[in-house]
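Aggregate trends can hide what the representation actually does to any particular protein. This step matters because it turns folding into a mapping between discrete strings. For completeness, the protein is quoted in full, as a sequence line and a line of structure tokens:
=====
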Amino acid sequence: MKHFIYSLAIFGLYACGETKQKPEISMEERAKAIHEKVITIDTHDDINVKNFTDSIHYGQRLESQVNIPKMKEGGLDVAWLIVYTGQDTLTDEGYAKASVNAIDKFDAIHRLCEKLAPDEIELALTSADVRRINASGKKVAMIGVENAYPIGEDMANFEKYHQLGARYISLAHNGHSQFSNSNTGEADGIWLHNGLSELGEKAVIEMNRLGIMIDVSHPSKEAMKQMIALSKAPIIASHSSARALCDHSRNLDDEQLLLMKENGGVVQTVAFSSYLNTKKNDARSTYMKAIHKQVADSLGIEWFEFKDFSTLTDEQKEKFIKNRPKVLGIAKNLVAGRADTPASLNVSDFVDHIDYMVELIGVDHVGISSDFDGGGGIEGWSDASETFNVTLELVKRGYTEDEIEKLWGGNLLRVLDEVQAVAKTMQKDQFIP
């Protein structure tokens, strides 16, 4: 009877020409629907171990650019927390000191996931872990190692780091390591190796065997080319942009981008101002330099520029990391209403790089990263709470839901799967009698 009455009602609507069309949703509503559906992965977020204690940790809304409350506000599902160690002397003493720093950061990440906020965030080691944890409603942590320097010359440490959760490692940072030349050699023309050292070549094979993604964001171009030639698995650039749009040695030129495509890897475009638009960044930085110093002086804070970070003492680094967000925030508010203030780098500038790389190498080889709490952050994506703005810009530019899913993490997880599959094959082959 109900079906009959319903049929008559529908017939009457058609007969009277009064059918109602479903209202079109706005672009922002469509972007929100996509953002909530896809898994959003940021492959590079630096950490300060001072934010991983019983009293101060990522379960709280800290001034850090990344923490769990901000991830929830912005809809960021996965944060790759970084075990970063700066470059020092290639000596046993230097390696030992760096090792302590690295292990402290591994311990901090495990403490967050296992003790401080286990109901809110969990460590993932595979793509299946990512999907399972995300489906449970918790945030996901993964671990990347920025600079293999603390590994020293003991190749067994790669397996140790893998057991601690490392799923990508960069063989160099800002300065040549025992494994690889750094991109920084372009500035002074001084090189330590011919790309990779013999130890670096062994490291590539060992990472393949273990299932660790090889990160080429900081090593030199020659080292990167050698890694691709040696690797049996796809590689990643965890936080780099397109050199054709911004001529910085940290970015990848077209030759490198095409090699990444051929290799099957992925380039995680980075929201770091000086890697997006040199002219625009220099104008803004020059203007803001005096403002930052003025704010720091008024607060009684010793101030440095981020480019000076590697030259600071450990105590100065700690204070700088702690005070930087506060100084930048106050300075930003001070200049907000000034007509002469140069424009900030923004989400549009960031997505320009995504557009360029997608056009050159295809949407299957491009991803997203921020370098938050390590110098990254732009207008519109200044911290994890503003993550949705990236998706909104992608929708505005005509990217489909499937393409956005790939950019936000699908490509990265695909590479992780392939790297781990290669490792299983290599390990199996080792035991063939």
The beta strands are 41-46, 78-84, 121-123, 139-146, 166-170, 213-215, 236-237, 266-270, 366-369. The first strand starts at residue 41 and ends at 46. The longest helix spans residues 401-430.
